[in-house]
C-alpha cells in the first residue's frame, strides 16, 4: 500500500494545526491508562508508554533548542555546519517518516528514563509543545525556511519541515502506544 506524500504547508496555521492535533491525538490515546499499562513493556527491548512520552519530551525540547541555535547562528552570520541544501520547495516527502521502517537507533540524548510520574511527563510535553508553537509564531515561516537543520532521523530539513516533522514523529509513536495498549 502506498501512502500519499505530504508536503510541508506554506502557512503557519497549517503547521500549528498539525502540531496541536498530534498532541491532542496522543492525549486521547493515553487518557485514563492505568499505572500498570503506563509502565508495562510489551517486550524487554521496547519502550513502555511512559518511556515513549519521555522520549517525545526530550525530542521536542532538545529539537526546539537546536533549531533556535541554528536560527541564532544564521542571524549572526554563521553558516550551519551540517549539509546545506537549497531552500525553497525541497520536495521532501515528510510522510516517509510514517512508513514502517527498521527500528532506528535513538541518539543517546533522546533516550528516555522510566519512573517519572505520568502527570510530570504530560505536563512537560504540553509545555514543550506550547513553546514550539509560540516559537513558530514568533519566528515566522519565511525565517524558518531559510535555515537547515539535521533532524533526529538524519535528514537535512529546513526549520518549517523540522517543526512539522515533530508532529509526524509524535504520530509514529502514537501508533506504537496504540499497539502496546492493544496487547494489554
Describe this structure in words.
This protein is mainly alpha-helical. It has a single domain (12-84, 122-182), classed as Four Helix Bundle (Hemerythrin (Met), subunit A), CATH 1.20.120. 55% of the residues lie in helices and 3% in strands. It has six helices and two strands, in the order αααααββα. The chain has a two-stranded antiparallel ribbon with strand order 1-2. Strand 1 and strand 2 (156-158) form a beta hairpin. Helix 1 (12-30) packs parallel to helix 6, helix 3 (49-75) packs parallel to helix 4 and helix 3 (49-75) runs antiparallel to helix 6. The longest helix has 27 residues, at 49-75. The radius of gyration is 17 Å and the shape is elongated.
SSE diagram, text form:
Blueprint: H1 12-30, H2 35-39, H3 49-75, H4 118-139, H5 141-145, E1 148-150, E2 156-158, H6 159-182
Antiparallel strand pairs: 1-2
Distance between the first and last residues' Cα: 28 Å
Can you summarize the main beta sheet?
A: 2 strands, antiparallel
Q: How confident overall, as mean pLDDT? A: 80
CATH superfamily: dinb family like domain
- Uncertain segments are 1-5, 77-95, 97-102
The CATH topology: Four Helix Bundle (Hemerythrin (Met), subunit A)
**If classified by CATH, what would the architecture be?**
Up-down Bundle
Radius of gyration: 17 Å
For the largest sheet, list the strands in their spatial order. Answer: 1-2
Helix content: 55-70%
* E-strand count: 2
- Structural domains: how many: 1
Please state the overall shape, judged from the principal axes of the Cα atoms: elongated
CATH class: Mainly Alpha
Percent strand: under 5%
Q: What is the number of helices?
A: 6
Give the SSE order as H and E letters. Answer: HHHHHEEH
Amino acid at each position: 500500500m502506498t501512502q500519499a506524500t505530504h508536503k510541508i504547508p506554506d502557512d503557519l496555521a497549517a503547521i500549528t494545526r498539525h502540531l496541536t492535533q498530534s498532541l491532542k491525538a496522543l492525549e486521547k490515546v493515553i487518557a485514563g491508562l492505568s499505572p500498570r499499562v503506563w509502565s508495562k513493556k510489551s517486550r524487554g527491548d521496547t519502550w513502555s508508554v511512559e518511556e515513549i512520552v519521555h522520549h517525545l519530551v526530550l525530542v521536542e525540547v532538545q529539537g526546539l533548542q537546536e533549531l533556535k541555535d541554528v536560527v541564532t547562528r544564521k542571524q549572526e552570520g554563521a553558516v550551519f555546519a551540517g549539509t546545506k541544501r537549497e531552500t525553497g520547495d525541497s520536495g521532501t516527502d515528510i510522510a516517509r517518516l510514517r512508513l514502517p521502517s527498521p527500528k532506528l537507533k535513538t541518539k543517546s540524548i533522546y533516550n528516555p528514563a522510566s519512573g517519572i510520574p505520568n502527570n510530570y511527563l504530560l505536563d512537560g510535553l504540553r509545555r514543550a509543545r506550547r513553546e514550539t508553537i509560540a516559537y513558530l509564531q514568533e519566528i515566522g515561516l519565511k525565517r524558518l525556511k531559510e535555515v537547515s537543520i539535521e533532524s533526529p532521523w538524519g535528514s537535512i530539513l529546513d526549520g518549517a519541515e523540522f517543526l512539522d516533522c515533530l508532529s509526524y514523529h509524535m504520530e509514529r509513536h502514537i501508533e506504537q502506544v496504540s499497539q502496546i495498549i492493544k496487547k494489554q
